[in-house]
Amino acid sequence: MSFPVTRLRRLRKSAATRNMIRETMLRGANLVMPLFVRHGKNISNPVGSMPGNYQFSVDRLTEHCSMLAGKGVQAVLLFGIPDQKDETGEIASSPDGIVQQAIRSVKKENPEMFVIADVCNCEYTVHGHCGTILSGDVDNDSTIATLARQSASLAEAGADMIAPSDMMDGRVAAIRKELDSKGFHNLPVMSYSAKYSSAFYGPFREAAESAPKFGDRATYQMDPANKDEALREIGLDIEEGADIVMVKPALSYLDVINEVKSNFNIPVAAYNVSGEFSMVKAAAEKGWIDERRIVREILTSIKRAGADIIISYHTQDIITEL
Ligand code: PBG
């Protein structure tokens, strides 16, 4: 039937029917809040380009997690800012590393909080690249060994999930093998499978002090123009044992999220990254947009595209409205 018998506006007329037939519902349990932790005591350094986000010392991070848990946040993703860096990032595997300390403290105070540990070397290397440099580029195979050790160390500290964000080939298999050999068969791996070489990571690199000192990440992160390649990355990570696959960033890659969800029957995560967050905050500060409505619309669109899990710095603002 077509117009005038069919009128789609009939079901839009009342809030009741709009509420009844809404297809995509955002839930608090879908959201993950990323947090930054550094050494020291009683520190909460605001991240200039990311209003409402801080580099916390472990004590303040733990308090912040208690506050988030009180608001209904169920999961956090931790990034460390170490006080020393080295050539290979091996320092990230130290049992007393900054993220290891943070995990132990958060889990002690808030055992219910699901703590995801990002695994990458860029915050821990003096050159800011995600692995060991050999002949001017990141060497894949020696890097994955460091990532496997870092993962095991974070697991030993009590992480609930390991999330490798380095984009080396074969790292999911290496991490899975190392975790299993240490008895962590039940610890899930959420892989940043299709992570693009994106300008949207700018504010994060200020927050995590992880910008590369030379060159860029184009030899290991994906070309923003590619979608077939994203599906190959996802397929390989699933074969290697990933429990959840991720597309990152989210907003400029909704088509990729959608394609991944349609092609694979596995939980999909999307990372609503720092640059996406900062643009919203900046426009809101200028009074040019309605932040609350925009944030809901953005997160709903990421879910509608096919993401089951959304990692977003907006989590702490929107959680009480869900
Ligand atoms: C580390 C990492 C990055 C992000 C998450 N993990 C930065 C990068 O690849 O340079 C970006 C997150 C964000 O922008 O919010 N490899």
Into which percent range does the helicity of residues fall?
25-40%
Indicate the radius of gyration in whole angstroms.
20 Å
Structural class: alpha/beta
Tell me the span between the first and last alpha carbons. 37 Å
Topology-level CATH name: TIM Barrel
User: What's the pLDDT, averaged over the residues?
Assistant: 97
Bound molecules: ligand PBG
Please report the first level of CATH classification, the CATH class. Alpha Beta
| Strand-residue proportion | 15-25%
Tally of strands: 12
Major beta-sheet overview: 10 strands, mixed
How many distinct folded domains? 1
Shape: globular
How many helix segments?
11
Under CATH, the homologous superfamily reads: Aldolase class I
Named at the architecture level, the CATH assignment is Alpha-Beta Barrel
Tell me the series of helices and strands, N- to C-terminal: HEEEHEHEEEHEHEHHEHEHHEH
Task: List the uncertain runs.
Answer: none
Can you walk through the features of this model?
The structure is a single chain. This protein is of the alpha/beta class and 322 residues long. It has a single domain (25-321), classed as TIM Barrel (Alpha-Beta Barrel). 38% of the residues lie in helices and 17% in strands. The protein contains eleven helices and twelve strands. It starts with 14 loop residues before the first helix and ends with a helix. The model has no long low-confidence stretch (mean pLDDT 97). The site of ligand PBG has 11 residues, from helix 6.
